[in-house]
Amino acid sequence: MAELNILNPNPPEFEQFLYAPVGEDRNGYVVTVLSTLARLGLDPWKETAELVTLEREAARTRLGLLLSRFRDVPALGSDHGKVARELSLLLPNSPPTPSSMQADETSAPDRPASRGAIWTILAIALVLLQMLFVGGSGPGSGSGE
After folding, report:
1. Helix (H, G, I), strand (E, B) or coil at 65
2. CA separation for the pair 76, 21 (Å, rounded)
3. pTM higher than 0.85
4. Domain coordinates of the chain in residue numbers?
5. 51-82 b/e with 16+ CB inside 10 Å = b?
6. How many Å apart are CA 102 and CA 49, to the nearest integer?
7. Secondary structure (3-state) at 71
8. DSSP conformational letter for 109
9. For the region Disordered, what residue ranges are annotated (predicted)?
10. pLDDT, tens digit (0-9, with 9 covering 90-100), for 39-61
């Protein structure tokens, strides 16, 4: 099951929070929590993992402080507390389970092997496609016999 997370090793429980909007920037584009944290120079998934370990009120306070530092969304200047309160409700109730994190860690050594298998499959598919196209113009295909 852990192999399904090869392309996205981050906990899916964080997605609702990270993809939630914090407001519109000066150009009218919606800015998400993920984008906000990244623009602040933070790793969004790591920061979310740390927020989840805190009590709800402490997480809200910390998130409010982070949002107050973010200047790209003008409305956050006065509403960062309200936005932080609403966003903190989207945080998962508990951190990702250690068993799911161990599954991700144990799948890490398999990644090079998985990449090798993918490249092998792609190479075989390329050879089969080449045989299909080149094989169609072989003997007996169009000399009028």
Report:
1. helix
2. 12
3. no
4. 2-88, 109-135
5. bbeeeeeebbbbbbebbeebebbeebeebbbe
6. 15
7. coil
8. G
9. 92-112
10. 999 999 999 999 999 999 999 99
